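Need the bound structure for pyridoxal-5'-phosphate, inputs here:
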Amino acid sequence: MSVSDLQRLEREHLIGTYVRAPVAFVRGEGVHLWDTDGVRYLDFLSGISVTSVGHCHPAVVSAVHDQSARLMHASNLYYTEAALRLAARLAGGCLGGKVFFSNSGAEANEAALKLVRRARPGGDIVVVHGAFHGRTYGALSATPQEAKQAPFAPLVPGFVAVAPEAQAIRAAVGARTAAVLLEPVQGESGVHVLDDGVLTAARAACDEHGAALVFDEIQCGLGRTGTLWAYEHSGVVPDALTTAKALGGGLPIGALITGPRLADVLRPGDHGSTFAGGPVTAAAALAVLDILEDPDLLARVRELGDLLLAGLAQLPHVVCVRGRGLMAAVDLDVDAREIVSRALLEQRLILNATGPATVRLLPPLVVDEADVVDALGRLRELLEQVP
Ligand SMILES: *Cc1c(COP(=O)(O)O)cnc(C)c1O
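Answer from helper R.:
Posting the output first, comments after.
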């Protein structure tokens, strides 16, 4: 089907919540995607930090294939091995507590919100400006952005939004606080790395008042910043973290991972999900972790991240570069949405605009140096044409 056929079907049949580029992809392999005309694109977005292991990684395809041929679903009324192996590996690899599986990032955050309210009934949840935690009602209530929240009021009560600064967080946390919820690196607001001092202050305030510190690592976790979890850069350990996006290699799976203190707060019947922790997505996630936990890959993410950030800083129209590892953004003095659109259509380079002046880059973590140089070259060629 041509793109114009697809656009007509969309207009007639899909609720119009997305703004799509006029490109339809039919195949992916590694860092590349191919459209309906067989044209190849260099993917520097990875879905949105989803296909971190590259498109159709053979180990993930094979895990999905094997598991789906044996058993696709049995429900959470019974045991399936993949989910339990995955839970042991996820919790064992970071906070050492327990795991609740979800089907998405927002749902992982919903589980975290219910958990911290269960631990401190009626308690407030402190969030920061610039945060993005998802689109469901709890996660949206934790996302203090007027344009996203206002049309859907009333929201879930008990959320307090403050500046992402140590003093502001300290002042907001008290005996009534159930949790502070933060992204160590904010993604949707345009890749803002929170200062270690902010995380340290949040940790201290939570400790003082018995509140839970929860990190949303849905975008910045799983190797994106060059460590398996973004919090490792700061040394500030949360009481729980949420993950999703890259975990399933393209399949929908998320998780809430707790430390020991919060591991047994939720009881039978408190929460649940029909699909979550299913054998196929769990098998995919186990294959993804095999790839992303590799110390050599993580070292390369740090190295190539430095190369990417340094290269971006040299480009015309770039005002400011932010990022850590292979999670990067540039502020431009020209229209970022137009640049992203032209990068796609003219340079066959996939990027994303998080705002009118900001371009975000989230390449697959399996890129090599030549791919980074290639992407920088395409972006330079485009930006040099802009007056
Ligand atoms: C994408 C994202 C979410 C929401 O995840 P969904 O799978 O879209 O529900 C939540 N938090 C952060 C930091 C994200 O980047």
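Comments: The two ends are 37 Å apart (CA to CA). DSSP finds 13 helices and 17 strands in the chain.
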